[in-house]
Amino acid sequence: MERGTPTVRPKNLDLRTIRLPLPGIVSILHRISGALLFLAGIPLILAMLQLSLQSEEGFEMIRHTVDTDPLARLALLFLIWSFIHHFFAGIRFLFLDMHKGVQLEKARTSSLWVIVTSLVLTTLAGAFLW
Amino acid sequence: MVNRVVVGAHYGLRDWLIQRISALVMVAYVCALMLFFYWSAPLTYDSWKTVLSHPFVKIFTLLSIIALLLHAWVGVRDIFMDYVHPYPVRLMLQVIVILLLMMYALWAATLLWGM
């Protein structure tokens, strides 16, 4: 084969047959949660900040909505999970940047920790909201 | 010749660095906010308004929001570079996101100093 000729490599991008390892799951969830935080999280946090500061009624309105609307609570909890997962997965990536925990076993363990910790903290946040 | 694509990566360390530094700023802010929530529980309108009226808190809040917007820009651009391949579409999406983020920054600044 001539040098520089692009090689044709087999591709397997069938999402139904790809089985992601744990670090891969943390990685794709980091991306999905990041996209969610950009699309819904940022506008919501700014709107809530404005409402909560402009008047006591606005402040109480947020509390009232969270207390009485289960759908709002569920949506909020989903964003809370997105944030917590993004937070811990991000801290894990910072350690990987410093070449800490890059060995396969450690990378798997820390991935599991990120997933479990996020779910546990989200459950606690849910218990607090309900 | 290097094929420079306006909507491509800049082949540099800068965005990577922005992503990390902005993350650290936000971690610090979120920790401080959580401590405040813990200390002042149950949170009232008055204590919330008082703490955010403090000039230092305002600046720290705006700084963290700007960090958030820069962080979002790098992340969203990464997603576009991975999944949106036609240049015109990618450019259009990038412009929309830049305008949106600039709007958010103005919104945050005006709401903090106009409260």
Question: Any overview of this molecule?
Answer:
- The complex is a heterodimer of chains A (130) and B (115).
- Chain A has a single domain, classed as Fumarate reductase/succinate dehydrogenase, transmembrane subunit (3 helical TM bundles of succinate and fumarate reductases, Up-down Bundle), CATH 1.20.1300.10.
- In chain A, helix 1 (22-54) crosses helix 2 (56-68), helix 1 (22-54) runs parallel beside helix 4 (104-129) and helix 3 (70-97) runs antiparallel to helix 4.
- Chain A contains 4 helices and no strands.
- Chain A has helices at residues 22-54, 56-68, 70-97, 104-129.
- With 130 residues, chain A is mainly α.
- Chain B starts with 13 loop residues before the first helix and ends with a helix.
- By secondary structure, chain B is mostly helical.
- Chain B has helices at residues 14-39, 45-53, 55-83, 87-113.
- The longest helix of chain B is centred in the middle third of the chain and has 29 residues, at 55-83.
- Chain B has one domain (14-113): Fumarate reductase/succinate dehydrogenase, transmembrane subunit (3 helical TM bundles of succinate and fumarate reductases).
- Chains A and B meet through helix 1, helix 2 and helix 3 of A and helix 1, helix 2, helix 3 and helix 4 of B.
